[in-house]
């Protein structure tokens, strides 16, 4: 197969510019008191009205608000007080009080759940007593007495319903009506109408005291189930937060704390391993460079490096990998991981908010507050939803009272009312001591019932929870598996992807290059290279490492001296080989790096260049065609000085073990896979053939700044592109891509430009992250569909759409049940996402 690397046009699409202005300040608030999407929209409006705020995002599911503001322009505490004064108790998460704020928020949610369970218990008792009155009838005169049911309804409003009614009225007064406003209007109106019927029997109205009892009971049941489901959805993040230990054991590094042969002593041992001189301090007070002791079964308090001892570490909560990892002196450990077998001493390298687990928590929390663009329609609707429902309710009352009952008079007949169709056991309470069915209803009472049903069937919560609960569950699953997705907007772009571009070195390959060949060519060099041995250009193949000559060693020494000033896998390989051969490093200074080409330095007073063939051409050094062919399929590093070619070194990289499987699975998902590399076409061909990639899917010899141009060119052709890279050299391409996927290196959380971070550093996780993104976005669409469907179908039915033709009338209690369980169904549907990703 003839391999022709594709060239990238210079100007096909505009590349994303790098912003030089200082980044905006991000402030996060814990916000209480939000009951539905209308509340979230109200909080967003209040935040945006504050001067200096650039953008605001409120997450109803986790009760968190995040703002971007101009640096120093916003007083977070004052803004939190403003929200609190407006009915949304808030607290800012600033620096040192973040841990306390998180603990307080968790405790507040627990208290809310306990309070809801208590209210629900009372409501269920009232519902049971009300139901027994209908079931037993004359067999239990007390339970069927109308005054008894009046008492049940009164208790329902004063006890479990009181917080709902108070919050609903306050929200209406603040011109920010919410779900509680609708429920309060419905329950109070039903109670008031029933009281009127009780006190003025001549009106012939029906008493329906059971309606507010059942309505409030079903609403509380739905809210309790919803809170429990939301708590389950957030469990992964809470587990991640719980990883951060509270204390650390500070030790004196001068003490002989550990005996390397005794790391598995029993916990009750009196050995110095378990009883050193130490001070226990809060983990967030540890400073970089301090020494800490960690015993078996304990969590590492900060990121660091093992200095003494040997152990195995459980890193499953960070990487998703269940097998413990062996750690010995020199190895890195991450905060929150569990020391399984041996006592060790570590040196702190990252503390506080800089640790891996803290950055993971920050990434997941940020992901849960970023919305998908698809949510914008729901947000727009939610902002006016309650007002619209109240208007529809009023129109429903006016229509049926002035027109509907006159057009279809049969709807006033009790036998055509279809109470049983509601499925809620809606019975009418008569005026005596017993319950009875009224055969005729007044137009006013029917219109009132329909208006109440419209109020309480509306589902603003379902709209508000549709996106954040799916993102909550999806990001939690990702965190458990070592896949960090930065937000809902990323999920939507993942769903649109059709092309995945991989960097080669360090991404598709291990990045651990090995030297395979030397070809020394020393002609007229001013450097002392044992020039009495003139190899010349007569060699047509590279000599292998197994036959190293003095000249070869000198060539390697010179190359290592130059590459010492570079940070690249090629430089690391050359330096490693030089060290393995015990060659002393030659003195060098005045280093210069040209990204994508090579490096140069002054060695023994002479300027030496090391890099690719193009770098040699730029320096006026001719490279013979035969020499170019001698190292086909390998990465070639040419070394030159004074316009003379000194030699060439050949290197080879190996594929990651899961590279072929990842590429095949991505293709199976209908995605085009492209390899992008700055390496030579011949070296790229070797890797492409191993992966089964065609020549058209390989972009070779692309400089770092040209990688972003290559991605822009693909985007100009209409492609939705994901770029997978190591997050350092590939930063411009990651920023340009629709979705940047960064491989986590060591204990570093991937670069800021990546939208998806793969903690396990495994290519197969690219497949998993795209699969998770697609599944989560599908859940968002399903939730939004159901949320809109509930309201689109429920409100007209509650308004009496089916009443003339079928006699079906939704009682206020039935409407309240539908409203409550709409939110539960949306959250439950999001939780079902876990079924797909079990194991």
Description:
The protein has 839 residues and is α+β, with helices and mostly antiparallel strands. The protein is 46% helix and 16% strand. It contains 28 helices and 27 strands. The strands form five sheets. It has a seven-stranded mixed sheet, with helices on both faces. A seven-stranded antiparallel sheet has the order 17-16-22-21-20-19-18. It is elongated, with a radius of gyration of 35 Å. The protein starts with 24 loop residues before the first strand and ends with a helix.
The average pLDDT score comes to: 79
Helical content (DSSP H or I, runs of 4+): 40-55%
Number of H/I helices: 28
Widest sheet: strand order?
Answer: 14-27-26-25-15-23-24
- Which percent range describes the beta-strand content? 15-25%
Broad shape: elongated
| Major β-sheet annotation | 7 strands, mixed
Radius of gyration: 35 Å
Structural class: alpha+beta
User: How many strand units?
Assistant: 27
**Unreliable residue stretches:** 1-19, 255-276, 415-439, 528-550, 746-750
User: Distance N terminus to C terminus?
Assistant: 42 Å
